[in-house]
């Protein structure tokens, strides 16, 4: 049997994510338009220093979840960011909260230092694993600046 094309495999991996977004009222879900950086690639770069600590699917899922909290927090005013972080940490066992808070702080600093130009809010993600490789799909809202840069020039 012939191997599926990369495009077909990617579409299959993105299907559950697209379906969840459509249930929440998003009418159309598109992949990164030409010229726009894929947020999944950026998030993979963001978490790179932590990958040795996240060798299993569950550990990778937790790392990505914490990274996305940190990412989105950097896009909010300080008080709203802290409220969001506190709410998320409330769902984590008490014994793990301080460590999670430290990792969130580190990831926020890393985002600000290495990726300040990216202002997309992350809506959802899909993590899959096949052949012992993780694949990340990220749904984000393009910033106003990005949308304007994609408009046809007259």
Question: What does the secondary structure layout of this molecule look like, with pairings?
Answer:
Blueprint: H1 6-23, H2 39-47, H3 57-73, H4 78-89, H5 94-114, E1 121-130, E2 133-141, H6 144-150
Antiparallel strand pairs: 1-2
Counting DSSP E segments of at least 2 residues, the number of strands comes to: 2
* Helix and strand element order: HHHHHEEH
Q: If you average the pLDDT, what whole number results?
A: 82
How many structural domains?
1
Estimated helix fraction: 40-55%
Strand content: 5-15%
- Distance between the first and last residues' Cα: 48 Å
Number of helices: 6
**Which structural class fits the helix and strand makeup?**
alpha+beta
Low-confidence stretches: none
**Shape by Cα distribution:** globular
Radius of gyration: 17 Å
Q: Please give the largest β-sheet.
A: 2 strands, antiparallel
Q: Record the strand order, biggest sheet.
A: 1-2
Structure description:
There is one protein chain. The chain has helices at 6-23, 39-47, 57-73, 78-89, 94-114, 144-150, and strands at 121-130, 133-141. The mean pLDDT is 82. It has a two-stranded antiparallel ribbon with strand order 1-2. The longest helix has 21 residues, at 94-114. The protein has 154 residues and is α+β, with helices and mostly antiparallel strands.
